[in-house]
Amino acid sequence: MNSWFWSAVFHIRDIDITKRLDFSSAIAVLGFSLIVSILRTFDVQLEAARVMVSAPVLALVTPHVLYINFYELDYASDLAMLLEIYDFPPYGGYFDAHSIWHLATVLLTILWWSFIRDDAEFRTSSILKKSKTKAK
Q1: How far is CA 14 from CA 19, 20, 28, 109, in A?
Q2: HSE-up of 126 (CA within 13 Å, CB side)?
Q3: How far is CA 72 from the centre of its chain?
Q4: What is the DSSP track for 7-45?
């Protein structure tokens, strides 16, 4: 929600601070999503192992956020997306590359939440099976 909020604010009011908040939030979401994906995919249970997975990602994400906020915010090097970099004039006055990119994020969000739902159902069924086994 934080990332979408700052993205909306940035697109309403394109100034330096809103751009930095938009980019920082997007980078944080990507880093957190990577951590959660790894932890859930490999079913990492031990706290020490979770830290060992999270620390390298945080070690890359944190300096990057600091870099774009306090050194150089280079749009082209941060977002290597063709629809973002190779912009074209609005087709029919409505759809440009950036708007198509945002449309694609809606589809990616649906896919992501589908994964989250399925994962939650799987985890819940696993926990229920374990509790039934222990009760016997």
Answers
A1: 7, 10, 20, 24
A2: 7
A3: 21
A4: HHHHHHS--HHHHHHHHHHHHHHHHHHHHHHHHHHTT--
Per-residue pLDDT of the chain (136 residues; tens, 9 = 90+): 888 898 889 888 889 899 899 889 988 988 998 998 899 889 898 999 999 999 999 999 999 999 888 988 766 555 565 555 667 778 888 887 777 777 888 888 898 889 889 988 988 898 888 888 877 6
Q: How far is residue 40's CA from residue 82's CA, in Å, rounded to a whole number?
A: 30
Provide the whole-model pTM. Answer: 0.67
